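Work Package 3 (structural annotation) set out to generate three-dimensional models for the target panel prioritized at the project kickoff. During this period the team completed the workflow that converts sequence records into discrete structure tokens, so that structures can be stored uniformly alongside our sequence database. As a representative example, we reproduce one entry of 581 residues exactly as it appears in the project archive.
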Amino acid sequence: MNKVFIWCYMALAFSPVLFAQVDFKATVSKNTLGINERLRVEFSMNKDGDNFAPPSFDGFRVVAGPSQSVSNMYVNGKRSFSKSYTYLLTPLKKGKNAIGQASIEIDGDIYKTTPVPVEITAAVEIPKNPNDPNYIASQSLYLVAELSKSTVYINEPITVIYKLYFDPKVRPSDVNNIDMPEYNDFWSQDIPSRRTIERGTYKGKEYNYVAWQQTVLYPQRAGKLPIAPLTVDVQLDVPTNRRDFFGNQIYTQVARTITAGKRTVTVLPFPEEGKPNNFNGAVGEFSFAVNTSKNALNASESLQATVEVKGKGNLKLFSLPEMATPSALERYDPEYTEQVNTTLSGMRGSIKNTYTLVPQFQGKYPIPPVTFSYFDPSTKTYKTLQSDELVIDVLEGPKAVSTVQSTTNPSAVVVPNNSTSFQFIAQQTDFLPIHKTSFFGSLFFYLLLAFPVVLLLIYFLVRSQTPDAARIAQRNKARLVKKFLGKAKRNMSDATDFYVALEAALHNYVKARLQIQTSDFSKEKMEKLLTEKGVAVETVSLFIQVLTNCEFARYAPSSRSSMEQDYETAVAAITQMDKQF
């Protein structure tokens, strides 16, 4: 028992020495600070370690760090070592907070610091010392959010420009965004800024300023909508009273975090008075047109009809009105294209839907007028534009069974107009009695049995020799081409699926035009046959180039822009060949 007691006593006596070998701690520059001040946090150790992990710094923003310093000295033959990681923080909110635990691995063991309590108070007044660099920086640097308008209608553009004003005697050396503004309930697009230094007035005083960030906003709902502030961290070179050997003024660097402040925009709803039924949110100044690529053609040929809006306004934020067509015109889903440029004044350009129409029968088919309504914020009124009625003249082709050839319902079914469709039931009959001779097994029975088969064979033989069958087969393949082109456009997010669909569309088009089988398909033979058919050499080369790109895409990655270019090239090549055929 005495030996056990002695060993326990020695362990307790030497334990402080053993545990005092590693000193890992956290220190702060102050335990109480204003929300507009900065906090310096240092994690120091007296023995080198690895895998340093800082705390999460909840409630703070790291504006600088970690900066690392190492000291290794020998005094009277004794080694003195110290290593530290230093952070510079700014508080995000008032109240009691704490610097959490940091950890490090030293000699295989994990050591952690003790949490350090910190209290954040309201903003404190910076001492007005004209020689203090921090005071000079606070009086020489401002971030201002300037709005082009404070009251707008829904979908009316607003420009917000964040200007960084600074006194000519100071020099910003580094500027970094900390908190990007949030544009909830806005459609937004950043406009690149040249960030050149200009002269301007702020609070009645001349300053240099830089347009640091500029954004165009389109509010999406009515009410008072807040715009969260932009916050930046600026490293500022501030002059001192000292000069160097050559008499030049010496500058000291001061770090400062500034914010533009919260702004609010009043968004007005659309007026109900005079609001058209077909209004779908278009705001601005526009022109409207509906056009066709041709007004006269033969049945089974195709034409393009475009519904286009041009002008200045929220072009990307509304849908185009739908074009109604007669049921005798086969209509494909429209292809949407836009050419819109967004500047500080808003969107400007054009958007359009292109429909492909294929008439089925001979005749004249009117396309009813299309109306488009928009709201003009400059006059605070609604305006409605209407296109002219267009007539498609189908010169050659089969005649329609129905005399009713135009309907505005694309899915309507043509009802035959036959005067003998309904008749009175006859009241007098001349039925004859059936003879008792056996009908089944007779010669007349077998003739009737064979008649449908012979009639079916004659039908297929005649159909295979008529040009209408070839036209119908060609039209079906043309539909398949459009189907694959649409599938390729929908699969632009996957390069493999896109190029498989695009290549299939090109193959089906050539098979429909040249009447060749897949086993006979080769680029060389196709090029020869297309040239013999009278297709221009430039068009053939364009078509072959797209096919080559489809083959290369199987072995090399393709970008979105490359896929869009190949799709447009394929459509252009097919369109040109259709015209030349």
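The CA atoms of residues 191 and 411 lie 45 Å apart.
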